[in-house]
């Protein structure tokens, strides 16, 4: 039986970027907050001199333990879903800071087109452009309305970027707070090639600081050392923006934040209209606690937000047969095929030095920046060259046709260790009626609770996008003049293994219509006005970008909404 604890004003479930931003904003305003994090505590000192590829990159030290909880996956309803037993597509963070600790730092704003994707697509091409079964929708907020929150987030995180306004992206109200990162020879080669082809390249906006920076909260952080241990690692310098070195110290300094680690929330207590608290399990002792609260904020990874609502029976579950319901709807992933690979016999690059967000890109074929009239897809992809830093275990580039073992394999591995560049894509992914999340009827977690089940596959939309974009990556790489050029021009069916991207979206999507959305533009639930669900679970589709910048902006807007709610109550829209 659960032990009932004294009631608290506000409880936050999950203490990564979203939970950290909201905790900071609410505690600065004088509100008492309890944050429940199922993982362990962390601090920057934990990563001093720990450049251990095996421990962090290969054995997933910072990730969720899949033997305790995982997801099940199937391509269609016609096959049985099976559990993901080893890490593949998704890197689900665990512990204080969540995925905000192990992210790369690539930090974009979604395009103005994204937020009004249905309206803008129909306006330009007509309703027939949207194929049957694709359920794109407007977000209930415009880019211009969200722009001040992007600005606030970027100043908090110290995002590094170019001072000039790029014509392919949304207009900014102020420049990036810090200059762009250094350009490597590979970046220069990519940018020169893109410009020769008439495109508009720019240095990727970076959560890795280009110089020492003090943010508006008075937090000072040092510049990036280009050590290349970003993705899957915590930053020992504090140069990579993460919750532990930005928002959480601010919240803790107020004295208004109580953090409880090893606290896995399993249920939201509610009467169908309002929540009254949460139930959680101490993962070390197995003890169960009931934490009453006036306000409940879910700020976890996409899968965790959706699963908790389904387990709690809060909000109407999505039914793909009828197309009704909202919890689990609009699942989207990301498209990563269509890359071009250049092997150089006549020059060498220092590819083992880099940073998670070090690179250049262009958006001439992203969003609706180009004419789709004669194309069998909508949206597009960000095209990029990144130098995140090779690591010895994972990096072994050889041209196709090279034997997989033996003398020639060893020779080619050594020859091309620093002689292979990649022009890659990050493609948008649209939601479909038959792509969704629900509870698995068979498989359960360590506590006997149903796992989340994912039903998803690539569609013709995705294949057409890759076929088109691959011609662009190939053209850029050809202009970069490699000795050998190879291109991946097709994708078939989606499989959860190997790793492709960790950018999952949807399931608790935002909008202006309660019949097709679970939360409003402040991420307040339509079905329970004292519950806010924050994160990429709110995205009605996935763009051609990393999601963190847009998550951060939405978290600041949600914080503003929560403060309004604490003053006036009721629905905010």
UniProtKB/TrEMBL annotation:
Disordered: annotated segments: 161-180
Transmembrane segments: none
Keywords assigned: FAD, Flavoprotein, Oxidoreductase
Domain Glucose-methanol-choline oxidoreductase C-terminal intervals: 439-555
Pfam families named in the record: GMC_oxred_C (PF05199), GMC_oxred_N (PF00732)
Tagged with keyword Transport: no
Cited InterPro entries: FAD/NAD-bd_sf, GMC_OxRdtase_N, GMC_OxRtase_C
Organism superkingdom: Bacteria
Glucose-methanol-choline oxidoreductase N-terminal domain sequence ranges: 143-332
Family note: Belongs to the GMC oxidoreductase family.
Protein name as annotated: GMC family oxidoreductase
């Amino acid at each position: 039986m659960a032990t009932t604890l004294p009631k608290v004003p506000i409880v936050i479930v999950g203490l990564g970027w979203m939970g950290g931003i909201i905790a900071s904003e609410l505690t600065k305003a004088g509100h008492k907050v309890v944050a429940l994090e199922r993982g362990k505590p962390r601090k920057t000192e934990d990563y001093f001199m720990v450049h251990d590829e095996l421990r962090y990159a290969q054995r997933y030290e910072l990730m969720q333990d899949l033997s305790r909880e995982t997801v099940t996956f199937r391509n269609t309803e016609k096959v049985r879903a099976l559990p993901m037993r080893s890490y593949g597509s998704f890197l689900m963070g665990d512990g204080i800071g969540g995925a905000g600790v192990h992210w790369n730092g690539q930090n974009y704003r979604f395009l103005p087109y994204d937020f009004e994707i249905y309206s803008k697509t129909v306006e330009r091409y007509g309703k027939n452009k949207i194929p049957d079964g694709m359920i794109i929708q407007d977000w209930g907020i415009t880019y211009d309305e969200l722009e001040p929150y992007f600005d606030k987030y970027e100043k908090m995180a110290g995002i590094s970027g170019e001072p000039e306004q790029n014509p392919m992206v949304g207009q900014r109200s102020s420049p990036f707070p810090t200059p762009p990162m250094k350009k490597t020879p590979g970046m220069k080669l990519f940018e020169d090639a893109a410009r020769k082809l008439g495109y508009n390249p720019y240095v990727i906006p970076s959560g890795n600081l280009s110089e020492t920076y003090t943010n508006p909260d008075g937090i000072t952080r040092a510049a990036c050392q280009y050590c290349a241990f970003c993705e899957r690692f915590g930053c020992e310098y504090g140069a990579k923006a993460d919750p532990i070195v930005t928002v959480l110290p601010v919240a803790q300094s107020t004295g208004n934040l109580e953090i409880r680690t090893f606290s896995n929330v399993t249920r939201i207590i509610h009467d169908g209209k309002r929540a009254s608290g949460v139930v959680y399990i101490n993962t070390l002792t197995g003890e169960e606690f009931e934490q009453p609260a006036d306000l409940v904020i879910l700020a976890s990874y996409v899968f965790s937000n959706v699963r908790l609502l389904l387990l709690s029976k809060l909000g109407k579950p999505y039914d793909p047969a009828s197309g009704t319901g909202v919890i689990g709807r609009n699942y989207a992933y990301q498209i990563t095929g269509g890359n071009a690979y250049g092997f150089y016999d006549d020059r060498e690059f220092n590819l083992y030095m880099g940073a998670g967000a070090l690179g250049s890109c262009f958006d001439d074929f992203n969003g609706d920046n180009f004419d789709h009239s004669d194309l069998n897809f909508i949206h597009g992809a960000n095209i990029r060259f990144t130098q995140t830093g090779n690591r010895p275990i994972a990096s072994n580039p050889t041209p196709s046709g090279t034997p997989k073992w033996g003398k020639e394999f060893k020779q080619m591995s050594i020859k091309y260790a620093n002689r292979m560049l990649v022009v890659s894509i990050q493609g948008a992914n649209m939601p479909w009626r038959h792509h969704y999340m629900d509870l698995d009827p068979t498989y359960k977690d360590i506590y006997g609770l149903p796992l989340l089940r994912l039903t998803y596959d690539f569609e013709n939309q995705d294949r057409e996008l890759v076929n088109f974009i691959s011609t662009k990556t190939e053209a850029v790489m050809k202009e970069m003049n490699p000795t050998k050029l190879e291109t991946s021009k097709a994708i078939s069916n989606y499989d959860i293994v190997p790793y492709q991207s960790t950018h999952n979206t949807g399931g608790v999507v935002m909008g202006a219509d309660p019949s097709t959305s679970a939360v409003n533009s402040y991420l307040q639930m339509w079905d329970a006005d004292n519950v806010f669900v924050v994160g990429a679970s709110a995205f009605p589709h996935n763009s051609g970008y990393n999601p963190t910048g847009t998550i951060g902006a939405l978290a600041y807007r949600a914080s503003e909404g929560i403060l309004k709610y604490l003053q006036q109550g009721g629905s905010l829209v």
